[in-house]
Automatic annotation (TrEMBL):
<dbReference type="InterPro" id="IPR045249">
    <property type="entry name" value="HARBI1-like"/>
</dbReference>
<protein>
    <recommendedName>
        <fullName>DDE Tnp4 domain-containing protein</fullName>
    </recommendedName>
</protein>
<dbReference type="InterPro" id="IPR027806">
    <property type="entry name" value="HARBI1_dom"/>
</dbReference>
<keyword id="KW-0539">Nucleus</keyword>
<dbReference type="GO" id="GO:0005634">
    <property type="term" value="C:nucleus"/>
</dbReference>
<keyword id="KW-0378">Hydrolase</keyword>
<dbReference type="Pfam" id="PF13359">
    <property type="entry name" value="DDE_Tnp_4"/>
</dbReference>
<keyword id="KW-0479">Metal-binding</keyword>
<comment type="similarity">
    <text>Belongs to the HARBI1 family.</text>
</comment>
<dbReference type="GO" id="GO:0004518">
    <property type="term" value="F:nuclease activity"/>
</dbReference>
<keyword id="KW-0540">Nuclease</keyword>
<dbReference type="GO" id="GO:0016787">
    <property type="term" value="F:hydrolase activity"/>
</dbReference>
<dbReference type="GO" id="GO:0046872">
    <property type="term" value="F:metal ion binding"/>
</dbReference>
<feature type="domain" description="DDE Tnp4">
    <location>
        <begin position="178"/>
        <end position="342"/>
    </location>
</feature>
Length: 420
């Protein structure tokens, strides 16, 4: 006879039946108290890893769609992040493997599903996912940033960026296309209107500089959505380095021999100020023929940043809905996704960004065929606002306009502005 049964027999003898009921309740609670649910303990049996093995062996296209990358790139990435996310088994339980952690993170980025929803396919608790996914995102960013998310740091590298823009997009002296997007979030507790944006939602701003190959060179995440969109640039260290002349960009040079010198510039849209090193379009309300030519040439080159953001959101659909995660983890998700974008763009461009996913100009008809990302959804753009400009900046823009309408013109520009 067990100790509990002996105690019950004594209590029955002395008539303390209520105490017996209390003991029964305590015993039931002890039985129910478990550190994890059975199906979570049997993760290998119930998780999506079995499905992934089947896809890898027999359906490679579905494998790519599931993780947004080909299997050899997945294992290459896994080898890079493994030292940063792998955990040791304990006497209590087997740890969640580095592979499971990476798969769960990639699936979260690809779908934007909540931790509560994702736990059923991963067989990992929502509480564990809340730690695993941000940790893995930071690991992805850490291992990829030096090679795949790097801004030029000398004149030679900047000149190569400019040469690529001239070759591919017919815009001379261009150091990159700049833009920003609002990353929607659920309102953080006790944050008031700190993250409240012009759309009436809550967000942080992602600011980026993109090269001619649709790759992010510079990314800054975390500017609160309340900052006026025209002031986003001033919140970046890029702006501070530019103002202090510490970006190591080339000094002004003539576009053609024996012509006036022009600075190297970043190009943006109406959300940004016109500065000597930042070009934006002329206002449509007061633009004549030559101004329309300049606007077209700038828009053509600036399209790389629009497409980069569009592809990012189409491939990592976590950005197409408010991020339902702790505000301190938003930057991890954003930075990892941008690093992955470059990693896949450079190593798997035919799959990650096939031709039909990009905006394409038909130079015969003058039409622009929109990429597929337009039909999936887009991140909230920065608000177009009136921004200051100085006389020197206007003079620089006028000289670019003059060049694009004369020595630097391209054969198709007249057709393109006539169809707009």
């Amino acid at each position: 006879m067990s100790t509990i049964e002996k105690r019950k027999k004594i209590l029955i003898t002395i008539g303390l039946f209520s105490c017996i009921e209390d003991m029964d309740d305590d015993e039931q609670r002890r039985k129910k108290r478990k550190w994890s649910k059975n199906w979570l303990l049997e993760r290998r049996k119930f998780s999506h890893m079995t499905l992934l093995r089947e896809l890898e062996s027999n359906e490679p296209a579905d494998f790519k769609n599931y993780l947004r990358m080909e299997n050899h790139l997945f294992y290459s990435l896994l080898n890079l992040v493994r030292p940063h996310i792998e955990k040791q088994n304990t006497v209590m339980r087997e740890s969640i493997s580095a592979e499971e952690r990476l798969v769960a993170t990639l699936r979260f980025l690809a779908t934007g599903r909540s931790y509560e929803d994702l736990k059923f396919s991963c067989a990992i608790s929502a509480q564990a996912l809340g730690k695993i996914i941000p940790e893995t995102c930071w690991a992805i960013y850490k291992v990829l940033r030096k090679e795949y998310l790097k801004m030029p740091d000398n004149e030679t590298e900047w000149k190569q960026v400019a040469q690529d823009f001239k070759t591919l997009w017919d815009f001379d002296h261009c150091l990159g296309a700049i833009d920003g997007k609002h990353i929607l979030i659920n309102k953080p507790p006790n944050s008031g209107s700190y993250y409240y944006n012009y759309k009436g939602t809550f967000s942080v701003v992602l600011f980026a500089v993109v090269n001619s190959n649709y790759e992010f060179m510079y990314v800054l995440s975390g500017i609160n959505g309340r900052v006026s969109d025209g002031g986003v640039l001033k919140e970046t260290d890029l702006y501070k380095l530019l103002m202090e002349n510490n970006l190591k960009i080339p000094s002004p040079q003539p576009l053609i021999q024996n012509q006036y010198e022009l600075p190297y510039v970043f190009i943006g849209d109406e959300a940004f100020p016109l500065m000597e090193n930042i070009m934006k379009p002329y206002s449509e309300n007061c633009a004549g023929h030559d101004e329309h030519i300049f606007n077209y040439r700038l828009s053509r080159a600036r399209r790389v940043v629009e497409n980069a953001f569009g592809i990012l959101a189409a491939r990592f659909r976590v950005f197409l809905q408010p991020l339902n995660i702790d505000i301190k983890n938003v930057d991890a998700v954003v930075m990892a996704s941008c690093a992955l974008h470059n990693f896949l763009r450079r190593n798997s461009s035919n799959y990650y960004t096939s031709v039909n996913q990009l905006d394409i100009e038909n130079l015969d008809t003058g039409n622009i065929i929109q990429g597929q990302w337009h039909h999936i959804g887009e991140m909230v753009p920065l608000q177009r606002t009136l921004n200051y400009s100085n006389r020197n900046a206007k003079s620089v823009r006028d000289k670019f306009k003059q060049y694009f309408n004369n020595e630097g013109k391209v054969s198709f520009q007249e057709k393109m502005i006539n169809t707009r």
